[in-house]
Amino acid sequence: MCGISGFLSATASGRSQFLLAAARSLNHRGPDGHGIWNPEGPIGLAHRRLAIVDLSDAGAQPMSSADGRWVVTFNGEIYNHRQLREQLSDGRSSAWRGHSDTEVLVDAIARFGVVETLRRCNGMFAIAAWDREASELWLARDSTGEKPLYVGWVGGGVAFASELRALRAHRAWAGGVDQEALAWMLTFGYVPAPLSIHPGVFKLPAGCCLALRPGDERRAPTANEFKARLERWWRLDELADSASTPDERMSGIEALDRLDALLDDAVDLRMQADVPVAAMLSGGVDSTLVVSSMVRRAPGSVRTFTVAFDEPGVDEAAHAAAVARSLGTLHEEVRCPAGAALALVDRLPDIYDEPFADPAQIPAVLVSEAIRQQVPVALTGDGGDELFEGYQRHLDAIAWWRVMGRLGVRGRTSVGSTLRRLSDLLPAGSASRASGRLGARLAAEDFDDYYRRVLQFPESAALGLHAARRLGMPSPPAGLVALGARMRFVDQMLGLPEGIHTKLDRASMSAGLELRVPFLDPRIQALSWQLPANSHAGAGTGKLWLRRLLARRMPGGVAKRRKQGFDVPIGEWLRGPLRPWAMELLSEKGDFLPSRTHVEQVWAAHLVGRRDATYAMWAVLSYLAWARRHG
């Protein structure tokens, strides 16, 4: 795991200074070493190293291919590098220099080309590869967007890096705020690719690559021009299309056997390292399954960590300890006092570097910092909810619509209007809020309208699909009609790369910790779409396939546990200990917000309990805190 940066320009003037400054700004992502490749010519590459595989100098970057044609700097891990090495060894004329995955990656590019190599890789990555023969720069991001990559037109050249802070290190940096990106951020809580918060700077979308040549640096493209230049080497719509024609020949037992074997192999690949590897264990279904696979491979020696919080809504320490005892792991509980989360708030704009507003970012940072004191690599159970329909909002939406669909549009509209009028007549309080919410639900014309009204915007299927069209992302295949499948598509296309992965990448990398996510092995993701669309949730329970697998491995109550969100009580904190911080941000002068009056009205309603505006206000305040630092 590392931090990468580089600069494509017509002249080398000022490039060395930028590469040094950019690499220095990414020290936290790679505390074990650095390298710069800056020959005479149009390109320079820089790298910060977190040494995980091949700790020797043979694993240092930037790295050239054996034939000298390609030079690569990359951030991430290629988990199947040993299998690729065997393929490349056939007919190879020179000896391998070491056993790093970087050497395999750059030589695979030399043998197969960039796009074919990406399709052969099982891993997480952001890659910059320079073709010295063709004078062409390739930038690429992994299929689900685990690793970030920004590219921007700065100071007469094209700069790229793992984080925006590296681009800001250029002496010609102008800054500014892209208003379309800000609008999406205030809607979703994050800036979706290909936009970034800064004009003229873009995020490479998940599953995409971009080829640049000398001369491309002369003019910054518009967002539409940038989107038009992208090549999708991986497409979620093609993968999800298999949901339209699932493999009906595969029985339930066969599917479970296949999932069982794939998870074991995915975990095995992600345990390969030359440093200690541990796991985050919450005691929930997903992390318990990952740890159970680890124990199968290394019984009696698996280390697990749980961070215990004073806040009862996020403390899962007791559940995790019970699972650890059952599995026989070397378990450690790290307690974070109540004040630790509050003290972290001022650091978030620097950790996340771009406006980001998921309250779970706070415990994510605290967990990462605690684990990094013990080990440099940890496996997590993330991705299970997105692949196997595990969020409670999915279940609630389907259950509500199953009832409301029977009323018809006219009946729903009539009852909904009455309830909303009633909410205006009732005194401010829980009864008024409940009546208004129920009225909004019943007034929906169709399922997409209902889903948009009742659920928070980041998870809205209707808004998510609208955003995807605006942002140039693939649309779901026509045969994808099951409600749960459509929601999973939005989760994997939008929320997973720019929400979940942004939260985890910045939190872990701020502490120099590498997180690995077995559920996002491409083979498991493919299997999740091949299962019957209506088999993922039922009877008020999601992730049925994962629960069945866990019940097979650990008979008992763990498989029946209801999902507990990894969250903190931000809403209450904003009315209490964080109120002075919020008031100070909201009182600052400046044109930071599109509608200050509206924000002030929402804030006032939240303070007196007339409205729960936790997520809306956290998005606004996160942006204001970022703007104070970087805007």
Automatic annotation (TrEMBL):
One of its GO terms (molecular function) is asparagine synthase (glutamine-hydrolyzing) activity. This is asparagine synthase (glutamine-hydrolyzing). It is an enzyme of class 6 (ligase). Keywords: ATP-binding, Glutamine amidotransferase, Ligase, Nucleotide-binding. Belongs to the asparagine synthetase family. SUPFAM superfamilies: Adenine nucleotide alpha hydrolases-like (SSF52402), N-terminal nucleophile aminohydrolases (Ntn hydrolases) (SSF56235). Its EC number is 6.3.5.4. It holds the Pfam family Asn_synthase. CDD domains: Asn_synthase_B_C, AsnB. The gene is asnB. Residues 2-215 form the Glutamine amidotransferase type-2 domain. InterPro entries: Asn_synth_AEB, Asn_synthase, ASN_synthetase/amidase, AsnB_N, GATase_2_dom, Ntn_hydrolases_N, Rossmann-like_a/b/a_fold. It comes from Luteimonas rhizosphaericola. It catalyses: L-aspartate + L-glutamine + ATP + H2O = L-asparagine + L-glutamate + AMP + diphosphate + H(+). Pathway: Amino-acid biosynthesis; L-asparagine biosynthesis; L-asparagine from L-aspartate (L-Gln route): step 1/1.
